[in-house]
Amino acid sequence: MSQIVVIGAGITGVTTAYALLEAGHQVTVLDRNRYPAMETSFANGGQLSASNAEVWNSTSTVLKGLKWMCRRDAPLLMRLSPSWHKYSWIGEFLWNIRYYRRNTIDTTRMAIEARRHLFAIAEREKISFDLEKRGILHIYDDRSSFEAAERVNTLLRLGGLDRRAVTPEELRKIEPTLQGQYYGGFFTESDSTGDIHKFTRGLAEACKRRGVAFRHDAHVLDVKPTGDTFKVTWNSYEAGAGAKKTDSLEFDKVVVCAGVASRRFASMLGDRVNVYPVKGYSITVHLESDESRKAAPYVSLLDDAAKIVTSRLGPDRFRVAGTAEFTGFNRDIRTDRINPLTAWVRAKFPGIDTSRVVPWAGLRPMMPNMMPIVSRGRKAGVFYNTGHGHLGWTLSALTAEMLVGLVESRKSG
């Protein structure tokens, strides 16, 4: 039995800890927050979406980004402040345009397989997370965007996804509460939505019941090889005393699932993991009246023009998320990025009362090729499961299984 430390208690870290536990390993999870799922896994768009598996490395995405550069409310916003990491990442992003087709197909296949693992975990551990299996509806304002979606649909179908075109009339039958005029849409009946925070917290509790050790408020300072083991050192705070103390433990193996901090830990271990933090925003609209609850959709949406996604989280909450912002590690919640989300709700669902809206911002850990990195490090005993970008919730249950496969093959080899 290996003693394994997982750094990070977001959706990727917790699903990885669970998969390692299932494989018979002794697992400790370290996280700098007091509870699991307090950063990017706190309030994302909620979609478990194979239909959103298209990678962003395309000429059309680059052209849209250039067009949007002068708009403060643009779906994609690039801050021009100098940063070697940002501009080198963009260079690698552009290089990976040549792999757009292959990576989109591969991501689709992964997303379809991942949902099977996630649903099995939720059923096995009796996790309630506002799951809605009502599909995801992509909506398009004009013919050109619809035809572009048809081309993407060819790749999604090659990846095994059943995603069908719908007319404006069919679109309204699928989600009657939606207002506005549309050229058409695409509907993926097999996609679903759920509350990532509830799922991750529930799975963490299941892990604890079965012996996984979680050490929170643990700010990891160093990860250092010491012969055949790894010494991990962190600062923590004693409950009630407010005093900082330094702890350390040795482990047989290290798994880095630290989201946007993964690049820093990889550097400590002699590896290069080129994760960049891409900020996204969401609002959670609390549906406090019968009128609001009736006016809010249950079918999940993706508005192509606004680059906004939605999820219904139980009867009383409506999640709306979007935007991509390249501003480094800035986590500030900006009014000029939140207001377009609220305005979108008012335009598309005028019957919803938006007097109680909770804003949030999180940093997506993105690799330049838009693919998660599930790999070994240069040193034996080092592993990475990170860089999932906008599909961390969708892909997490599968990449956790892939990571265990690497750990087990190293053990048997």
UniProtKB/TrEMBL annotation:
The keyword Cell membrane does not apply. Pfam families: DAO. PANTHER family: GLYCINE OXIDASE, SARCOSINE DEHYDROGENASE-RELATED. Residues 4-404 form the FAD dependent oxidoreductase domain. This is D-amino acid dehydrogenase. The keyword Oxidoreductase applies. One of its GO terms (molecular function) is oxidoreductase activity. Keywords: Oxidoreductase. InterPro entries: FAD-dep_OxRdtase, FAD/NAD-bd_sf. GO terms for cellular component: cytoplasm.
